[in-house]
Design goal:
Shape: elongated
Radius of gyration: 19 Å
Order of helices and strands: HHH
Structural class: mainly alpha
Number of helices: 3
Number of domains: 1
Length: 89
């Protein structure tokens, strides 16, 4: 197992992690931005107002993007496990 192989496996792991987490982060970010604009326009300064809409949007995003996320993770795991003999030997 060479250092290049270790770096490549780590790079792929980070890439998969970013791809899986991106839809949830983007949904929460957009929701938070919209709620913040609404709060600024109406001058409502309630910190907990954005929590429930973010939670709902992230949950809906997880339901919609969940199958794609699971497929991405299982494909990565299968590639990783199938490459073990080549890495060891």
């Amino acid at each position: 197992m060479t250092p290049t192989t270790v770096i490549e496996i780590g790079r792929q792991a980070v890439e998969v992690t970013l791809l899986v987490s991106a839809p949830l982060f983007i949904a929460a970010l957009v929701t938070g931005l919209l709620i913040s604009v609404f709060q600024a326009a109406t001058q409502i300064n309630e910190a907990t107002l954005s929590f429930v809409p973010k939670l709902i949007v992230v949950f809906i995003t997880l339901i919609v993007a969940g199958p794609w996320m699971i497929t991405l993770l299982t494909d990565y795991m299968q590639r990783l496990y199938s490459s073990i003999p080549g890495i060891i030997g």
